[in-house]
Amino acid sequence: MLTTNQIRALNHIEKSYLNPDRDHPGPWQQQWGPNQKEIATICARYYAENPPYFSDLAHRILNEEFFVPTEAEFNKLTENKYAKKVLSEHYSTPLYAGATMVCLRIPATKRLDMPELKDTPLMILKINAEPIIRAASGSKRYLVLPITSDTPFLVEERDIKKYKINH
Questions:
Q1: pLDDT digits (tens, 9 = 90+) for 50-70
Q2: Contact 37/30 with Cβ under 8 angstroms?
Q3: Residue that finishes a domain, picked among 67, 91, 115
Q4: To bridge 144 with a disulfide, which of 1, 104, 122, 149 should be the other Cys (CB 3.0-4.6 Å)?
């Protein structure tokens, strides 16, 4: 037996899947293009990594090739304060270029459990190597390679600083 709130939730989910606006192209569906899809995908990747908010919508955007969210869904997904931070960080100019020598900041060596990499030069192999998973400044992700290893790993921009040769 379902409770009143469960029935209400089930009706809401059913309406979102059987929305007549999805079947008949309107002004929003005609506006939908690569730019909106890119923005929705960036936000969907963030929310897929940070459940439970927008989990179903994020899953559909990432996994259903021809899925077009309603304008209201798109705005809720992309216009909130967390999504705005993620988008701002994604589109910001990277602080470090590829092939730049950097090193880990001391708090990052502790948080990443890599104390052996303190003062070890790292080379940036790739900028925006993975989608942003934190709504914070400096959350752009880099693929870096320690000069003492042949195994690259991911770091966030805020975890690294320019390497100074006189260490």
A1: 999 999 999 999 999 999 999
A2: no
A3: 91
A4: 122
